[in-house]
Protein: Deazaflavin-dependent oxidoreductase (Nitroreductase family)
Amino acid sequence: MSEQQDFNRSVIEEFRANGGRVGGPLAGAELVLVTHTGARTGRTLTTPLGHFRVGDEVVVVAANRGSARHPSWYHNLVANPSVTVEDGESTYAATAVVAQGAERARLWEAIAGSRPFFRDFQEKAGAREIPVVVLRRT
Structure:
């Protein structure tokens, strides 16, 4: 198991044990757990993700810290958009929808406007447009 997988596992355990709150380097972060299906493996995976509420929408950003590549969870959501979201208060089924055009621009501005480091990530990512994904409750 990789160091990242170990870290994620500990975050997931702490999140579930403490009603959505975690400590350590993620203390105070607004997280959700997204359970999704691996695009290549078909395995059920759970990933802790920072999320943003824009109006009534729950949004995650596939920034991958500005890498030139999308994070693997993003590929999984595109291939299999039916997910389960845990927000610390409830667990619900959702559909992951990649925002496009004007919707993406609106969501990106709302998020990057309050968290400028996302603009730095976009610059670092080069030609890769960082995806914005809405987790729509079904």
Observations:
- The chain has a mean pLDDT of 95.
- The first helix runs from residue 3 to 17.
